Amino acid sequence: MTISVLIPAYEPDERLLNLISQLRALLNVSIIVVDDGSGDRYHDIFQEVEACGCKVLRHDTNLGKGRALKTGFHYIREAGLEGHVICADSDGQHLPEDIIKIAHSLDHMGHRFVLGSRRFSGKVPLRSRFGNVVTRGIFTLSTGTKIHDTQTGLRGYSVSMLDWLCEIPGERFEYEMNMLLRAHKDGFLITEEYIDTIYLDKNKSSHFHPLVDSFRVYLPILMFSASSILSAILDFALLFLIQSLTNHLFLSVVVARMCSSICNYTMNRKYVFGMSKTSNIHHSLPRYFGLVIVVLLLNYGLLYLYHEGLAIPLFIAKLLTEASVFLFSYWVQRKYVY
């Protein structure tokens, strides 16, 4: 089992050295530490890290956790290191035993990555417990995927995922949320391994700023939800506009659905998930618009039944139709499209 442990570090203390020492005692691992612009005051700590046989990569200024992780991923890829890559925090929250647990889990996994999910039992700082509950709830509502700990910094990947990891947008704490949002769309399955929850000194060493960084974390989820809402509004508006101009229900449904679908796909691809590669288009576009055609036919059939057959007003008929096809569309997108 070949393992590279990647540790982003900003203004670390002796807990980083303790983690490295414990890892060295338990495993034969390559340890890469990224100094994310900690400054001259922390020069001695990073010298000790290098003296322990670790590779230290440096940022001249603080660029954020996402950028630090990508710097490490780039190095591992260029160095040709093999096996598994496990990311851990430098503040003592992750036990060496849990890092080993993630590595063993990766041995049995294929095209997926593993999260070290905290149980949040015992004495957990209120901001940490509350933040995870809120993020977990919003993530589940937005994606339909239930993850126990969306904010964990203990994550494991195979080296085959390095190209993908380097392409994920985000420079700071939002990077890890973007990763989760992109995972299912790009065919990566997420597995969770439960780990111990450790907060030293009420987690005062955390560099997570509740207001600014929470906004960055939630922004991808909010954009994901906003994309669906804006597309639905466009679909409603075009349906009523074209219907009023042509009095042709099928034409109205087709044009409205196609325009809103193109809008939704484009917004998700460009702004929500930051996808740009042609291969990603070839992977998702045919399946997405195949579903659009099926949903369009269902949409028209139900709308015709409600509006023409049962003489329900068009607005109410449209609401009933969308509610009727929502679960089907949602299930297909989760299982086959993304």
From TrEMBL:
The chain crosses the membrane at residues 217-242, 288-306, 312-332. The keyword Transmembrane helix applies. It is a multi-pass membrane protein. Keywords: Membrane, Transmembrane, Transmembrane helix. It comes from the Bacteria. CDD domains: DPM_DPG-synthase_like. Residues 4-162 form the Glycosyltransferase 2-like domain. It is found in: Membrane. Pfam families: Glycos_transf_2 (PF00535), GtrA_DPMS_TM (PF04138). InterPro entries: Glyco_trans_2-like (IPR001173), Glycosyltransferase_2 (IPR050256), GtrA_DPMS_TM (IPR007267), Nucleotide-diphossugar_trans (IPR029044). The keyword RNA-binding does not apply. Residues 224-337 form the GtrA/DPMS transmembrane domain. This is Sugar translocase. It comes from Paenibacillus segetis.
